[in-house]
Each structure stands twice: as C-alpha cells, then as structure tokens.
Amino acid sequence: MKKHLLILLTLVAFSSVYAQDQNSAIVLELFTSQGCSSCPPADALLDDIREQYENDNVYVLSYHVDYWNRLGWRDPFSTEAYSDYQRDYAVKFRSRSIYTPQLVVNGSEHFTGSNQYKADDALRRYAKAPTTNNISISDVNQKGNTVSFSYTTKGDEFSTVTLALVVAERITKVSRGENRNRTLKNTNIVANRVVKNEETGEVSIAIPDWVGDTDQLAVIAYTQDSGLRTTGAVRIEI
C-alpha cells in the first residue's frame, strides 16, 4: 500500500511540474496614446480584459507612443522608445506604417485594439498554446526611484526577455488635443522597461518622475524569440 501511495505521489508531483512548464501565456501589448481620439475604446477593452482574466495567464501592457504629442496634448506616459518598439513590429509584420490603437498578441498578430471580436478570438486560440520558456523573478527591492531584482529564464527559443515596470492604472483629465475635455483611464501603463538577452541576471529599473507614491507597481516579464514571438511570461507585484 505504501509503495502504491509513493508511486501515486511521484506521478502527481511530476504532473504538476510538467503542467507548470507547459502553462500558456498570452501577452497583449497595446500601442496607444492619450492624443489619439480612437484610442479610448481600445484602452477600455484592455482594462476589461485585465479584469476578466485577472487570475489567468493573461498579461496586458499599455505602451504609450509619442508621435501624437505634436497635436496639442503631450501624453505624460509616452516615450520615443515605445514608438521605436512598435516600428520593430512593423518590420516583422511588413507594415508600411505604424498606427494607434494597435494590439499585438503574443508578438504573432496584430489588429485594431478596440476590436473585441478579434481580441476574444485571439484569447481563445492562444490559451491553447503552451509556453517554451519559464521566467522567475526574485529579490525584488524598491529603493527611492529604482526597482531592482534578479531574473532567471529556462527553456528553448529564447532570444530576449523584456522586464517591464507597469503602473496598474491612471485616470487623466485631458485638456487639449483630440481628446479634449475627456477623462481617460489607462491600464498597466509601461513606465519603463529593460530588455536583456542573457538567460539570468540582475536588473535595476528607474521609476519615472510621473509615478506617484500611491501608484500600484508590478513587473511583467516576457520572453521573445528572434521573431518577437512571445514564448513565456510572468508577473510579480511590488
């Protein structure tokens, strides 16, 4: 009896490890801007997805681009680096131009970020796709305007790991530009990011000045292969 119980426990343990290694991970990257009049519906959809899949392996990020800033409202969360990252996807998808709101799913496909039908369809399809990389984050420490931690990745098809510092949400009253007099909600705003190509290492991420003491912070880490396809993801609260 003891022997059978030992075998059963061994099988259960092995199954749990295997299941953990094969978890799906869906990373939704929304390229958006507070200066874009068609972006608020996409921002709202991303927030809905975050709430609906809060306990699942679905990771949403808002990348605020800077090329709308010239039209009267400077998006306080925007950087040129995120516009450049979007251009990397344009090369991958053989697009002649970049646009907002653009939703990229697992680095594998893109569509207008407010299209709920396509978003729901993508969530169903990618929920069945196993990951090939595991990521762990440890020794997280916030000191002053810096968050530092260690990371480790395991698995195949690894090219880079993105370590993104995100702010859970912000409400902004826009006074100028295309969204003049509107109150906007943005979700999981990427405040800063570091991209590494080493399997393990230590990272320090600077916290921008616009992040306040009451903001809820987290780190979302995701691996990508050489074609920018997502191969694994993890999130840790700070």
From TrEMBL:
It holds the Pfam family DUF1223. SUPFAM superfamilies: Thioredoxin-like (SSF52833). It comes from Aquimarina spongiae. Keywords: Signal. It comes from the Bacteria. This is DUF1223 domain-containing protein. The keyword Aminoacyl-tRNA synthetase does not apply. InterPro entries: DUF1223 (IPR010634), Thioredoxin-like_sf (IPR036249). Residues 1-19 form the signal peptide. The keyword GTP-binding does not apply.
